[in-house]
Amino acid sequence: MPTPRDYYDEILDMRCAQSGDMREAIWRSIGAAFYSMLFSWATQDWWILPWGVAYIAMFWAFARGYGLLRRPLGFGWYIAVYLSYMALTLWLIGLALYFLATEKVHFFFISGTIICGIGLHNIVRHGKPNIAAISDMVIVLACMLLSAVIFATMSPTRVEAIAIGCSGLTLTMYYAYAFSVTMHTRRQLETSMQREIQAQKMQSIGQLTAGIAHDFNNILTVIQGNLELHDALDDPKERQKALKEAREASQKAAHLVAQLLAFSRKSPMTPKPLLVADVVAEFISMAQPVLPANVKLQMADIDDDLHVYADGALLQSAMLNIALNARDAMLPDGGTVLIEGTQVSPLTNMTHSAITITLTDSGPGVDPAILPRLSEPFYTSKEVGEGSGLGLSMVLGFVEQSGGQLEIENAPGAGLRLRMTLPEAIVPLEDTTDQDTQEAAE
Question: The domain that contains 403 carries what CATH number?
Answer without folding.
Answer: 3.30.565.10
